[in-house]
Design brief:
CATH architecture of one domain: 2-Layer Sandwich
Strand order of the largest sheet: 2-1-5-4-3
CATH superfamily of one domain: Longin domain
Distance between the termini: 109 Å
Radius of gyration: 35 Å
Strand content: under 5%
Number of strands: 5
Structural class: mainly alpha
Helix content: over 70%
Shape: elongated
CATH topology of one domain: Beta-Lactamase
Number of helices: 39
CATH class of one domain: Alpha Beta
Amino acid sequence: MSDFEPETLQNHEQLILKGECQQALLKINTVLDSKVLTKNNKLSYNILKAKCLTKSDKYFQAMSLLDDIEEDINSIGAELQQLDFILIKIEILFIFGKTDLGMKLIEDAENLIENIPKDETNILIHKKIDLLILESKIIADVYGFTDKLHEVLELSLQLCNESNYEYGQAKTQERLSASYAEMGNIDEAIICADEAYEIWKRNEIKTGIAYTTFLKGIWITNTNPELSLEYMEEALKLSEEIDAQLTLSKIHTSMGILLFQKGERKEAMNHLEISMKIKREIGDKHGLIISLYNIGILYTGRMENEKALSYLYEGLALTKELDYTRPYYLIQFALNVIYIRKGELNRAMKFLEEAVQFYEEKNMKENLAWVRGSMASVQTLKGDLDNALQNYILCQEFYEKENRIGNVCDTLNNIAEIHQLKGDYNLALNYYTKSEELARKTDNAYMLAYVSYYLINCYLDRKENEEAERYLETLQQLNIKLDSKPISVITNLAKALVYSKKENSADRKVSKELFESVINEKDIEHKLALTAILNLCKLLIIELRESENLKLLEELKSYVEKLHQEGTAELAYPLLVQSIWLQANISLLELDVGRARRLLKSAQVMAEAKQMINLARRISNNHDILLGQLDLWEQFTMQLPTVAERMELTHIESVLNEMVKGRGIVFPEGEVELEEPILLSILSETGATLYLEQFEPELGRDLIEKFWYSIITRVKEEVKTGSLERMLFQDYSCLVKKLESLSFCYIFAGRSYEGIKKLEEFSQLVYGTSLVWEELEELSKIALSTKFDMETFVASGDRDQPLEYSSQFIINQYVDNIFLRKK
């Protein structure tokens, strides 16, 4: 029998199927180097060589060979040769991320199969099955695990059984295994993986044995991580022996994720980087996107946002290059974590709203559930709990329908947290308990550990400390069983929280030491570190009040500074603003009122710049109260009061309690209290009134005169250009905004926050209207040579103002539109 006869071709193909690609390639090259091949035989061997290169994960070489033989395929290729050529090309295009071209070739292959005459052999049916398996890969990758995917796989399995095509049966079972796992049906996923494994083992096909061993490891990651790791290590060893690069890259990715969950971050990163390197080398662009995403997520978890962004942006660019929508939104979700951490909630929400529209149009329900979950987390951070709850409920309905147990538990916990934040601890407990029941039912120890931690927090909020201690015992037992760093961290944090509620000083000492150990952990989840620092600060304040030990104040300052540094380093604006708010209150404890006011102003400006309106309003109200207590603080400074007495006048405990209870979220206060306008004016540098609007005509002349002297003195001596200063006089507040040579003054009764926004808007409108601004500046210059007469000002009211009618009219329009003007 000659080397180029069909039987020999089939022998070479069997070597390829068994994963012995190097041996097959050597034999194929030997035949191709001979000079006795006909042109058609040479074409058959080149097709087989391309298939061998593809199975060896040498996709660039395979595609180059296909390009070389394409002309011959079109001119002399038989129909089966053309079909093989298309099948190989589809597989390579899938790896390269060109799924749109792959789907077009699937249509061409289907048409070709229809036109090839049927014979008594099963070759054509087997090609049809191979095509269905390739189609299932593209459908899953582009559209997710849809009904269409299951139709394709069920048809493939039916044809395999009818034609006794074991290779196709094993490949189809692998695809079904992945599909069931995505749906949360792990039992079926394992059954399918086992069936594929038995076929590969019976036929001694090492590539299949390695891959299905790896699959079995993935599906038990949550339930038995140690056995999972054993399966993956076995698959890794076998894949290295046969040089199965694509499978190796997938194993390294999954091992990285598993080790990341176990808290072994350094080893996790090593595996993920190896996976990324392999994918770059073999040209697996789809897989490379996932690697970039996973490494980005790891850096995000370590709070190394800039490194995370570099990987995520590279992945994002690839998704755009490939027009690959599913991972595009996946990476955007990861980017949203960073946007949210930085306080860019509106930016995050804008993307999520676009994603909802996209997935609704595509009827991609699974992806829609992911997006709604992300939207709910942003809405929670914005304090919009009702809409957050509605989105979580929609997610829950989908996950229950699809039997996604892990997602169901996570969403139950999220719903419980919303009710906990709303103060409805009974409902919160109800949802946490449902999550606990599911975790026990599925024997998921990791899930049970996390829900135990949540239950401890809930019972502490309900002041049911004994129940919290009972769940702490459960968590401690799970910690011993799992031997996992993340579980160890939440166990220590839970114990610290429980012991912080005890009255005994020895227990509080234990609590303090545990909080410190959590804070000092490397690569800790940001939310857990924040919980530890805030609760430790709360504990320090209790001790400070009781002991008057000023060393504790220094310790408190160091931890608040740690919050500030973390917020500054990562531009995490919600954390940064609230840490400045805390620093302002610590300054009051140190009797430095001036610094406290500067910090409150800085915090409010930053909160407004990042559109954290609820937070800005709370800080502004804190500043208003401080203004009303200035005389008292002045007396305090002279008397050197105790720390406990100083605390009575600060908001440090209430600020910390809000941050602890709300997990750093600042909720709306309810109905916003609007200020009552009294007077609005524009002053020259000398104090001459260029514009005046008196909203309260009954206001006494003596009061106006005293108030105005105070304002003019302050404007001349303290207010800097561009700044906005607030001051208090009797029962009224005054805001002064200086722009170049002019000062804008607004007097009102009530809280300052809305007034600040109005004066800012009014001053910018006037400044931006050139006709009005130029006339005001000219009048200000004239006023420099004129002595200001308060008697004349008070007597004239707003009847003899020097502005031209047109400018007066424009300013009056602005006043009407911005302020609540009384007629």
